[in-house]
């Protein structure tokens, strides 16, 4: 599992005005953010190598699960 520094996590939360109900949710969101961070870093290495045409970055959804993102787009998951 990849991790992010305390500074990266605090900076993200401040930039996107993130507040969580308790430490357990903060931990879960940080882990989700760390996975997104890893995907972004891997993608941007491809960008630097010229194998993809766009750069990725964090946004308000970087701490959301894939299921939450799908729901926000109106995609149903499971029945």
Automatic annotation (TrEMBL):
Domain of life: Eukaryota
A Pfam family per the record: Inhibitor_I29
Residue span of region Disordered: 56-79
Residue spans of biased composition, Basic and acidic residues class: 61-71
Domain named Cathepsin propeptide inhibitor: residues: 9-69
Gene3D superfamilies: 1.10.287.2250
InterPro entries: Papain-like_cys_pep_sf (IPR038765), Prot_inhib_I29 (IPR013201)
The protein's name in its UniProt record: Cathepsin propeptide inhibitor domain-containing protein
């Amino acid at each position: 599992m990849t991790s992010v520094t305390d500074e990266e996590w605090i900076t993200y939360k401040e930039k996107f005005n993130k507040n969580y109900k308790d430490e357990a949710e903060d931990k879960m969101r940080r882990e989700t953010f760390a996975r997104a961070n890893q995907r972004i870093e891997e993608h941007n290495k491809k960008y630097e190598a010229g194998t993809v045409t766009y750069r990725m970055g964090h946004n308000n959804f970087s701490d959301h699960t894939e299921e939450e993102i799908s729901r926000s787009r109106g995609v149903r998951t499971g029945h």
